[in-house]
Amino acid sequence: MSFKNWLALIAVPVKNGYAISTGVPLSKQHVLTTAHGIPSDPKIRIILKFVDDTNNNLEWREARVVWRGKENCDAVLLEINKDMNIQSCIYSSNLPLSNVTWEGAGFPAAGKIASGDIAGKRDTVGLKGDFYHAGGAVSGNMELDVSAPPSIPGLWRGISGSPILIGERLVGIITMEKENFEERLYGVSIRKMLEDEDFKRILGVTGREERLKSLKEKVLEILKSNNKLMELFQTEPALRQYSTPHDTVEKLFVLDIDVFLKMVLYLCNQIKDDQTAADIEKLLNLLLPVIYDPGCVESTRLGVEQGIIHSIPVATRTIAEIIMAGVDNRSASYIKPITGDSYPVGVPLIETPPETGFGLDNEYSKQNAFEEHMFMKFIVKEDRYRSVPAKRTLVNDQLEYISNLEHISNKVNDSFYRHYFIYQLPPEDSPARNRVLSNIEELRKLYPRMLFISLSDSDESLIAERKICRPLKDFFVSRKEKGVVTK
Question: Could you say which DSSP state residue 379 is in?
């Protein structure tokens, strides 16, 4: 999403005008901002306007508080009338373990427009700096710096509630500037908010534990049936103290993904028998969607269910499969064999049509190349002479049939199996961008059984994701070289 279009300017009446803060949507009817900018008096009127509202000359929206953070959690959720056009943020429950770059934007007093037809209104001000992972160890606050702070004290006013984005994922909101330290800001993390059951209930982030029950049972079944695997786990520092299969399962489900992948790759090289190697691969595919950034997976799942997801903040097809497996509550599934010169891609991925000069920004590709590709992939030869509307129906029916078969064989409650197509959007200033979006919307209508997802073009995301992709690729390549290819 282009987050700047859905920043909210929030106004609360005070004695001499309005107190201003910034907000960001977490759903199609909930906006997150700071608590200190919103009085606890339920009679106080709260209004807000998104940048997109301003650009389209729309009226202010009425809002009300539906959740207020407890001690050391300076945050509130505002509820507005449901609007399917709102593009909410994908948020993350993970915080980096090293210093990294963050970005955001807000409506500080420094952004007040001085002249012209819109003089007096506040413009957005872009923010960028470093997140200090070791800061806030006592208070629990996020500590940030900003590369271009205002030169006059007081011009930060209005910045509260601005999003803190790392790798295009919302990790928190700004709460205040650090007194006498104008280049530093404090923030509160999404992770802290997700510790509150009411916050999760209001957003619909509930039932995760219930959905994981069937997956835990499958992992437990594997461990109980393979003593050699349990013995191998006992040699690993992260699992050494867990002597029973049940305790090992509980620990596996909360392991850091980097630790898990290094452990799996190491164990794979120690394994001599095919059954244990196959069981390791099953565990890998089951656990990847569980331990990879639960906040990102859950917020993506909610967006898919509400029909508002157009993009996910990942840069690689490998990580996209992990997220989509988590969204659908299934195991990750990668196309085999995997060679050393490519990264794993998901089985449900609809690959780009081969040798067609495929590009979504022209009419031919939309109506011909993509559809011909789908017909060849999902329709038997004897039905390919039928009319285009009939073939579209056959494709959608086949997609539903495959999904049902996979659901039955997966033996996991509430699991799905959705095919998805990944595309790359042109830059925002490119005239082709709107044509691509228009063509994608048309394809969504023609193939409602599929998901169409745009990947991020963030270099930072790509570099971070390759740290996960590399050991995953090496694991599958090692399996292939040993002559073991599990379906």
Answer: S
| Residue 357: per-residue pLDDT | 46
pTM for the model: 0.87
Mean pLDDT of the chain, nearest integer: 84
With CA atoms as reference, report the closest residue to 451 among 323, 358, 364.
323
Q: What is the dihedral of CA 207, 417, 223, 474, to 10 degrees?
A: -120
Answer for the pair 321, 463: CB distance below 8 angstroms, yes or no: no
Task: Decide if 282 contacts 410 (C-beta within 8 A).
Answer: no
- Is the confidence at residue 421, as pLDDT, over 80? yes
Cα–Cα distance between 369 and 375 in angstroms, integer? 10
Q: What pLDDT does 294 receive?
A: 92
Please give the Cα distance from 302 to 67 (Å, whole number): 19
Please tell me the distance from the alpha carbon of residue 242 to that of residue 254, in angstroms, as a whole number.
13
In whole angstroms, what is the distance from residue 404 CA to residue 457 CA? 33
| Distances 91 to 52, 96, 275, 408 between C-alpha atoms, Å | 21, 14, 38, 31
Work out the pLDDT band at 310, boundaries 50, 70, 90: low
Left, alpha or beta for 354 (phi > 0: left; psi -120 to 50: alpha)? Answer: beta
Once rounded to an integer, what is the mean pLDDT over residues 309-329?
A: 87
Alpha-carbon distances of 145 from 34, 48, 105, 149, 461, rounded to whole Å: 19, 27, 14, 9, 20
3-state secondary structure of 322: helix
- Packing angle, helices 317-327 and 274-291, rounded to 10: 80
Cα Rg, the chain, nearest whole Å = 24
Q: Is-contact 29 80, C-beta < 8 A?
A: yes
- % of the chain beyond a pLDDT of 90: 38
Token representation of residue 240: 């050494």
Specify the amino acid at residue 136: G
- DSSP letters, 159-223, are -TT-EEEETTEEEEEEEEEPTT-TTEEEEEEHHHHTT-HHHHHHHT---HHHHHHHHHHHHHHHH
**Mean pLDDT of the 379-397 span:** 91
Where helices occur in 58-180 by DSSP H, the ranges are none
Average pLDDT over residues 41-57: 92
* Whole-number Å distance between alpha carbons of 203 and 299: 9
Cα angle 352, 357, 362; round to 5: 95
